Amino acid sequence: WGGTFAPTLTTPAPVAAMNSSVLPGSVTWRLVAGAIQIANDTSTETLVLAFSCILLLTLARVARNFGYWKARGIPGPQPVPFFGTHLRQFFVPMQTIEEERYKQYGKIYGVYDGGTPGLIVGEPSLIKTVMCGSVGLTTFMNRRAVKTTHPIMGNFLSSLEGDDWKRVRAIVAPTFTNAKLKSIVPIMTAAADDMLAQLERVAKVPTAADSSSAALNAASTATASTSHQVNLKQLFGKYTMDVIARASFATEPNGHFTKQASMLFTFPFWRKFLDYTVPMAILDRLGFTVLPKGPMDFFETITRKIIRERRRCTGSDG
After folding, report:
1. DSSP code of residue 92
2. What is the pTM of this model?
3. How many other CB atoms are found less than 10 A from the CB of residue 125?
4. Residue spans of beta strands (DSSP E) within the chain
5. What is the pLDDT of residues 48-63, one digit of tens each?
6. Three-state DSSP class for residue 110
7. What whole-number distance in Å separates Cα of residue 268 and Cα of residue 284?
8. Please, where are the H alpha helices in 78-212?
9. Which residue, 28, 256, 291, is CA-closest to 149?
């Protein structure tokens, strides 16, 4: 941030080397799953004791990694159990947090995603090394694990790892050639023109040319109704939805499309809380996904429909 990018890299070389030995293993989560299975056959006192022991064990396993970056001389914010260094983002916008940390700790600093060490990089040349070329395709192919049981989201490029990630990346790479990216520019320009037109309508004020009293009164009334105020978050959100709808789905966004998209990118507190505090074994049983299932199903339906239509058109063209 602040003129540079700051991707979270949870698998830099030193981190990747220690994942198998120091990160919370599956033993704790199997204990949790086992406790749930025997809950109906156990007394309340025993359950309280069992869950207390599991909680203490989990805290110990999570917190024992909290000195990882300090031991390597890399600065960063102090983590807390379960949330790591991400607790503030429940209450403060992420971009504000990242900008503050960038100024306080520098271009490279360590964070914790729960108990997992991650590295924030704000140096453009190093970002290019990490994200592009052979280094990006081998050492840094994996990102933060996404908790999901959704069959589509689980196959997102951002969710896959290892050979699966390489396979899907090879499939989608031709979509992002220079020629195809340039073809999106007119779509973005058209959406931007619509957004600017809305801003101009809000900013319109009476001029000296509007000499008649009636014209001035009408302009004054229109100005008062808008008060020269506009919700920029909604305005730019609509612009983003316009570009996504036109470029990715070849359609004009309507009210239902915009509503579903807004739900998809809205994260209520309870959803964030579950994502950071509840083990995946339990979330699997609950059918929990980071992104809400309704909007995900909506866009899955649209995407499959577009694929069928394009295949049909391609077949009819021979």
Report:
1. S
2. 0.58
3. 7
4. 8-9, 108-113, 116-121
5. 888 788 877 777 776 7
6. strand
7. 20
8. 94-105, 124-131, 133-138, 162-172, 178-203
9. 291
